Amino acid sequence: MAEYSTYGSVAVLQVNNPPLNTFTRHVLQALVSGLERAQRDPAVRSIVIAGKGPTFPAGADLEELLGTAAAPLLSNLRMVDKHVDTCQKPIVCAIHGTALGGGFELALASHYRLAVPSATLSLPEVHLGMLPGAGGTQRLPRVVGVKSAIQLITSGQDIKAQQALTLGLVDKIVQGDLLKEAVSFARSVEGRPLEDRRISQRTVPDADKVDEVVEATRKTILRKARGAIAPLTCVQAIQASVLPFAAGMAREADLMTYLMTSWQAAAQQYVFFSEREVRQWSHPRDKHINFRTAKPTVIKSVGVVGAGTMGAGITISLLQAGLKVVLLEVNKKQLDKAIAVIQKTLRQKSASQKMSQLTTTMDYSQLSDVDMVIEAVFENLRLKKEVFRKLDVITKPQAVLASNTSGLDIDKIAAATKRPDKVVGTHFFSPANVMRLLENIYGKKTSAETVATVMQLATTIGKVGVLVGNCAGFVGNRMLGPYRSEALFLLEEGVDPQDVDRAIEEFGFPMGPFRMTDLAGNDIGWRRRIEARLTTEHGPPPDTPALYRRGDRYCPLPDMLCLQGRLGQKTGAGCMMLQEAKDDLTENIYIRFRTDGSVFDLRRLLAHTKTLEELILDLLFADDCALLAHTEAALMSHHAPSMCNRYDPGSRTALPDPVVLQMIQDYRQEHGFKKRTISSQEIVERCLYSLINEGFHVLDEGIASRALDIDVIYLFGYGWPRHTGGPMYYVERVIGLEKLLRSLETYSARYPNHSHLQPSPLLRDMVAKGGSLAALGTTDSKL
Ligand SMILES: CC/C=C/CC(=O)SCCNC(=O)CCNC(=O)[C@H](O)C(C)(C)COP(=O)(O)OP(=O)(O)OC[C@H]1O[C@@H](n2cnc3c(N)ncnc32)[C@H](O)[C@@H]1OP(=O)(O)O
């Protein structure tokens, strides 16, 4: 637990609790015993504390912290730190690996800190809904000042050794043998006065500015916290660091108790474990196929087909993980653009050497030797099948073929090949090199080995891989459907898009549904609806009521907006006038390609296409096509209209657009909707409960095998607020399943034609029988 040895006058205490040397009560007790022994021994004149194996202690043991032992664990840690702080013999911490949370706090309580260049220090408690409750909020500001302490503690960010040295958090960076250096350093400081080495005895350097600093940062922290209570509570504790040390510690302890007993801390700790537990996948159809039994194929080289935004992002992720990549794109200009983006991103990350691992090509035969291909072409089933047909012929027989589809049928794609067992979905999220989620989709014939391979790939490239079944939209996008529909129905009834966005953002999402659509592109859904023949212009049967499709309520507002050229932020500055183009095609209508800025006459393009509809499908949705405008002058002068908002040139701030508001008003009038006032609570409940209700369907059908898989998908792919634990956790632990059921019953009685508000049979069953999502596999055992 804590190994004791002596090197002459130096006692060395090495924490030994593999793999991360986390603090359990026993480890802490062993440390106290070791410290007492060293203090008692007259031959010992200094002490070194270090971690055995790969790291300095990475903080409190979370398994123990989440159980009944939390309070004794914390008080033991405070006791150790007090022993260390007040010790009459100098204590040197020798830091390597990750000194996190309680580990870093122990280092701050010590008199000297040495670190190897690769060491990382941080106080990440805020991510667990807590604060550094063993003196971290009191000692850190005494070294770096209140301002920096607020920044470091409320972000929980990593501090690399060199930065720690600059900040005064470590005294020396050690290049050679850390333990040897620490022992000799300890020897060199023996007998020196210790008073000025005790951080607890120092004053906060910017104490006179504390109120000013807190005031200046409060607004930013509140905005970033999006409803999480931990960040502001951390600030309150840091504020107390200007008090005498004992008073500050007492305040820290009170605030820590408040946070540790909050539902948000429990939710965030659930997130921590769920993020790791998704790796322990099992195949819903056959539990014997799982992460233990299935062996992944070793992937060293990957082909990426399609160099659009997604393809480039995927390529960057693969290169950063050290894999060889062959990027194929049939459009030379697009390929050049992608290469520039990849180069720029890698350069920013100081990883330019990774470019040597990249081959770019327009020739499919270059993919003959790769271990795996990820297809990232345009979201069109016909096109994807075509690509897979080619890949099946060109690639080696054992190569895995993955599609980065966001919702198309994996089985249909697999059927285009003679190796459906090697075909799988790998749904990346945009920007693919940033977003952590990788939704992996198995088809009917996908082999266990292929599943294991893509789950392993997720880990290799630093993503959180979640295994799900095959259905339209898979888990994430399928659940988003009802959420979006309900948001649109709310517009019909009287709220403005900004009201919906505000309510959802106040709940904690970074973006409401309309701003999100603006960012992602309104055309993505439009294209899907056109292909499904749902839009008015593209073919519902003549007798279909205007606001219904296939028996379900349908809101055509987004289609109407698309027809006005409101495709989202990507349309840039300009306005697409398709409707007018259809009626009266003049010579002045152009399409501009963003890739190279070239402008084409729409009439000439249409001459090569049978219908305008075909043009929309084949061309206008292409990634590189930016906008249409009546004239270049109009193009220059126009604000960038997005789906529901207006964006001033160069800005991403969504502003209400009077044109859209008028359009919605006309629409309400035309269809006989009577505008009413709708509360934020109703907005949040209708949007989120319909999404969660779909989650129950997804579980019921075995598309997701555990509630935690859904939570992780939403947390890492859709910006669901982390402090609430994810949609399924939130509804079970915070709202309550019974309340969800009652609310859905109330809303579905009011809106019998909104099918997604009808409570799912699984939810009804659970409420009736007192079942829980935990029984379906959440991480309850760890809570
Ligand atoms: C006493 C009161 C309060 C004190 C304050 C604290 O100290 S709070 C805790 C502060 N520490 C942390 O938050 C550290 C959390 N851990 C990490 O950030 C990472 O695990 C790591 C240390 C950076 C290592 O990352 P890596 O990617 O190498 O490994 P994993 O994350 O996959 O972890 C490996 C397994 O270890 C489990 N684990 C990690 N940290 C803890 C922990 N603090 N307590 C218990 N278990 C921990 C993790 O769950 C993994 O387990 P598996 O079973 O393998 O999934």
TrEMBL record:
<protein>
    <recommendedName>
        <fullName>Peroxisomal bifunctional enzyme</fullName>
        <ecNumber>1.1.1.35</ecNumber>
        <ecNumber>5.3.3.8</ecNumber>
    </recommendedName>
</protein>
<dbReference type="GO" id="GO:0006635">
    <property type="term" value="P:fatty acid beta-oxidation"/>
</dbReference>
<keyword id="KW-0443">Lipid metabolism</keyword>
<dbReference type="InterPro" id="IPR036291">
    <property type="entry name" value="NAD(P)-bd_dom_sf"/>
</dbReference>
<dbReference type="InterPro" id="IPR029045">
    <property type="entry name" value="ClpP/crotonase-like_dom_sf"/>
</dbReference>
<feature type="domain" description="3-hydroxyacyl-CoA dehydrogenase C-terminal">
    <location>
        <begin position="473"/>
        <end position="575"/>
    </location>
</feature>
<dbReference type="GO" id="GO:0004300">
    <property type="term" value="F:enoyl-CoA hydratase activity"/>
</dbReference>
<dbReference type="Pfam" id="PF02737">
    <property type="entry name" value="3HCDH_N"/>
</dbReference>
<dbReference type="InterPro" id="IPR008927">
    <property type="entry name" value="6-PGluconate_DH-like_C_sf"/>
</dbReference>
<dbReference type="GO" id="GO:0005777">
    <property type="term" value="C:peroxisome"/>
</dbReference>
<keyword id="KW-0413">Isomerase</keyword>
<dbReference type="Pfam" id="PF00378">
    <property type="entry name" value="ECH_1"/>
</dbReference>
<keyword id="KW-0576">Peroxisome</keyword>
<dbReference type="GO" id="GO:0070403">
    <property type="term" value="F:NAD+ binding"/>
</dbReference>
<comment type="subunit">
    <text>Monomer.</text>
</comment>
<dbReference type="GO" id="GO:0003857">
    <property type="term" value="F:(3S)-3-hydroxyacyl-CoA dehydrogenase (NAD+) activity"/>
</dbReference>
<comment type="similarity">
    <text>In the C-terminal section; belongs to the 3-hydroxyacyl-CoA dehydrogenase family.</text>
</comment>
<comment type="pathway">
    <text>Lipid metabolism; fatty acid beta-oxidation.</text>
</comment>
<feature type="domain" description="3-hydroxyacyl-CoA dehydrogenase NAD binding">
    <location>
        <begin position="302"/>
        <end position="470"/>
    </location>
</feature>
<dbReference type="GO" id="GO:0004165">
    <property type="term" value="F:delta(3)-delta(2)-enoyl-CoA isomerase activity"/>
</dbReference>
<keyword id="KW-0560">Oxidoreductase</keyword>
<keyword id="KW-0511">Multifunctional enzyme</keyword>
<dbReference type="Pfam" id="PF00725">
    <property type="entry name" value="3HCDH"/>
</dbReference>
<keyword id="KW-0276">Fatty acid metabolism</keyword>
<dbReference type="InterPro" id="IPR006176">
    <property type="entry name" value="3-OHacyl-CoA_DH_NAD-bd"/>
</dbReference>
<feature type="domain" description="3-hydroxyacyl-CoA dehydrogenase C-terminal">
    <location>
        <begin position="683"/>
        <end position="770"/>
    </location>
</feature>
<keyword id="KW-0520">NAD</keyword>
<dbReference type="InterPro" id="IPR006108">
    <property type="entry name" value="3HC_DH_C"/>
</dbReference>
<dbReference type="InterPro" id="IPR001753">
    <property type="entry name" value="Enoyl-CoA_hydra/iso"/>
</dbReference>
<keyword id="KW-0456">Lyase</keyword>
